[in-house]
Amino acid sequence: MASTPPLKGSNAGRSRIRNRTAVLGQIYHSGELGRAELARSLDLSVQAVSNIIADLLQDGLLVEKGARSAKRGLPAVQYGIAPTGGFALGIEIRPTVIHAAMLDMLGNTVFTHRSILADAQPDAVIPEVTRLRDLALQSVPDARDRLLGAGIVMPGPFGATGLSGRETDLPNWQDVDPVELFQTALDLPIEVSNDANAAAMAERISGCALGLDSYGYLYFGSGLGLGLVSQGHLIRGAFGNAGEIGHIPVPTPLGSAPLETRLSRMSVQHHLILAGHENIDFETLEALFAKSDPDLMMWLASATDALGHATQIIENIFDPRTIILGGAMPETILHHLVSNVDLHSASVSLRDDNSQPRLQCGTSGRLVATLGAAALILNKRLMPNAVTL
After folding, report:
1. How far, in Å, CA of 92 to CA of 181, rounded?
2. Boundaries of CATH 3.30.420.40 in the chain?
3. Is 362 helix (H, G, I), strand (E, B) or coil?
4. What CA–CA distance (Å, rounded) separates 240 from 228?
5. Domain 211-365 fold
6. Nearest-CA neighbor of 220 among 315, 337, 101?
7. Residue 224 backbone dihedrals phi, psi, to 5 degrees
8. What are residue 102's DSSP bridge partners?
9. DSSP secondary-structure letter at 198?
10. How far is CA 310 from the centre of its chain?
11. Which CATH number fits domain 86-202+371-386: 3.40.50.1370, 2.40.50.840, 3.30.70.20, 3.30.420.40?
12. Where does the secretion signal sit in this chain (predicted)?
């Protein structure tokens, strides 16, 4: 079975929250809908839909969008998501910096901020995150009483594991419960995730994964991570560490090596520094690609080969509709990788009945994971399949 049908509502056996989320999600995907259309699509009575819409209008989550002529009877009033009906805060914590962003209900970015971190230990991070929340609310006064929650993105893996001790780890967080810590500090519903999972959810809110229920997201952070969405749910694993694909060995001319040593921002930076380049930041990579720098082209040739191995692994283990490539890497480089990769034929994804490409570009830029953190909150409100059943 390729996919499951959208979550239906219920007149009796399902919860009020589930039905509200189903209505919001259906309207979000369609742009605007009337009561009768909603009732038909969700298997709810028109009266049940009318009651839910009345509640959502009162809560400021929906707006009337005018009336549309029907074949019979009076024109049907259409309803849409109210952009300022709710807001979601996104926080991305890195060893030396914190990024913050706020999204409205339609996924529009209404606030961003970047703070340098001198100390990334919990006692230093919490006051700064609290300050950023307050700064966001000062910048967007409408959000003060309509903040739905905060998504927190942190480097994985979570807890002490065989992958601990990397340069991207946050110090002294291994024995801390981040959900409890941030809930206490911010007094908000909290979702904590790694950067790849957050980016995968952002793509589902307002990117090329809109409307898809099963896909993979290869995320360029410092290393390489994998966000996996199956039937609308993130695959987190037993301890929240699913998707650490960067540590899987792949073949190289010198023997096997971890994937992210061939395919990551850290990898290209190390390669270019050894070749004599300096200050390898986002803009430098864009400029080097624009002039077809031979050192960068050499890295890209190796990286596309590694990407081919990675896609074959993901496709044959998880059977996604598509794999999306995105993150903190210039869009031009992502497009080059997607356009030049040799996708293996020995894959379950080589089929004629899938309308999606096997590999495609998603969102790129420095704030992908930060916006994804906020998208974790919106996803719970707007995506019916995200509701815990």
Report:
1. 15
2. 86-202+371-386, 211-365
3. strand
4. 12
5. Nucleotidyltransferase; domain 5 (3.30.420)
6. 337
7. -130, 125
8. 89, 111
9. H
10. 20
11. 3.30.420.40
12. none
What pLDDT, in 10s, does the model give residues 131-177? 999 999 999 999 999 999 999 998 766 666 666 556 566 778 888 89
* Contacts of 90 by beta carbon, 8 Å cutoff, 6+ apart: 100, 101, 102, 103, 150, 151, 153, 198, 370, 371, 372, 373, 374, 375, 376, 377
CB-based contact 149:191 (threshold 8 Å): yes
Prediction pTM value = 0.83
What separation, in Å, do the N-terminal and C-terminal C-alpha atoms of the chain show? Answer: 20
Nearest alpha carbon to residue 68 among 22, 32, 27: 32
What order do you get walking across the sheet with 215-220 strand by strand?
233-234, 224-230, 215-220, 323-327, 359-364
Q: Which tokens sit at 103?
A: 């999204």
The CATH classification of domain 16-81, taken from the options 1.10.10.10, 1.20.120.420, 3.40.50.300, 1.10.150.20: 1.10.10.10
Q: Is 13 exposed, middle or buried (0-12, 13-18, 19+ CB in 10 A)?
A: exposed
pLDDT tens, residue by residue, 301-338: 999 999 999 999 999 999 999 999 999 899 999 999 99
CA distance 210 to 202: 9
Helical residues (DSSP H) of 215-360, grouped into ranges: 265-274, 282-290, 294-318, 331-340
Let me know: does 324 contact 215? Beta carbons within 8 Å: yes
Task: Determine how many CB atoms are found less than 10 A away from the CB of residue 144.
Answer: 11
Query: What is the model's pLDDT at position 158?
Result: 64
To the nearest 10°, report the CA torsion of 97, 234, 182, 95.
-20
Tokens of 96: 């030396």
pLDDT tier for residue 13 given thresholds of 50, 70 and 90: very low
